[in-house]
From TrEMBL:
Chief place of localization: cytoplasm
Gene: argJ
Record's subunit section: Heterotetramer of two alpha and two beta chains.
EC number: 2.3.1.35, 2.3.1.1
Cell location: Cytoplasm
Site (Involved in the stabilization of negative charge on the oxyanion by the formation of the oxyanion hole): T123, G124
Binding positions for substrate per the UniProt entry: T156, K182, T193, E280, N402, S407
GO cellular component entries: cytoplasm
Site residues, Cleavage: A192, T193
Family classification: Belongs to the ArgJ family.
Protein species of origin: Companilactobacillus mindensis DSM 14500
Name of the protein in question: Arginine biosynthesis bifunctional protein ArgJ
SUPFAM superfamilies found in the cross-reference section: DmpA/ArgJ-like
Job of this protein: Catalyzes two activities which are involved in the cyclic version of arginine biosynthesis: the synthesis of N-acetylglutamate from glutamate and acetyl-CoA as the acetyl donor, and of ornithine by transacetylation between N(2)-acetylornithine and glutamate.
GO molecular function, one term: L-glutamate N-acetyltransferase activity
Amino acid sequence: MQSFIEEETKYQVIPFTWPKGYKSDGVHAGLRKNPEKKDMGWLYSEVPAQAAGTYTTNQFQAAPTKLTKQTINQDHQLQAMVMNTAVANSVTGEQGMIDALKMQALAAEKLGLPNEMVGVASTGLIGELLPMPTIAKGIEQLQLLDNGYVTEAVLTTDKHAKTITTQVEISGKTVTITGFCKGSGMIHPKMATMLGFVVTDAKIADGQLQTMLSQEVDSTFNQITVDGDTSTNDMVVTMANGLAGNEPIESDGGIDSQNFLEAYHAVLEELAQDIAADGEGSTKLVEVNVEGAATHTDAQKVAKAIVGSNLVKSAIFGEDANWGRIIAAIGQTNATVDVDHTSVWLNDLPLVKNSHSADFDEAEMKASLGNDKITILVDLNSGTATGQAWGCDLTYNYVRINATYRS
């Protein structure tokens, strides 16, 4: 029944720390009303780093997202990212791009870098211009420290900062990978929805980092959903500064590539799951595993359809084993499905066998639905491919949060 078996890993998860050569800071500049809340931050590498990014597919792509994409695409290098919360600088016209460029220039000047070595990220309310005097004040306050305050400086409705650090041995050198992100609402990626930053001291072969990021985003951030809404500002940026001293890693399937990608994937997957679990108003993380699919694409599509169904999400919140909603979500996709022999398990308890009710114990199933994490396994009986996705339940509190977001 279960295809998702934990295997021994080559990497280890360690307490949050920056890889070699990275500094950061986060401050309260005055964008948020609460003086205890950080609202601006930056992340800096002591040397130029190879850079890669993936970006929202929303047609109203925000000015900072466009600028960072343009900046990285020039020569695929960065040395810093500057970021703010509270104001998204999205749907702000020509002035929005002027302000994003000014934010980039202010950070570059303070760091003593060319403008094109600094990326910009903003999140918060759409449609408002950045208060540039406040932005300038925040950048002036920022320092180059070892703290993790920048991980708090991008939060909006998130309940906590989302961070992870892994280490792995590559060609006899210890390579560190650290990631952090924000995301709680407007989560339905068509690349990676939210702001995510992953930095490493690994040396990556020229031109390979973008390939690695795009590959790993597809099976992590692209497989989460909270509310079906793709935001305007979202991006994932990776920097690799090479200070670990390892031999350059190629994306060629060799042992170094495999070991690095395993550790890198673990960072992206943990951050993706943390976003799903921290969905606005959520009380449960929902993981859907699909097996027996004709193709991996089919499996991914079905998994995401289930975690994205408002009816499934509502049933999970209500702790109601209404399996018809899961079946309906599967059927809405164009995946190849054996409609007479599809089976579903919920927290390892049989729910549907061969497209009929498994005659489960209602009390036992309801008790299982009281868990903080709900795992749904689906067998499409149409092949050997597998897929996975993550989401959360849909609660009354989600409506409350989003009904009063501006106030």
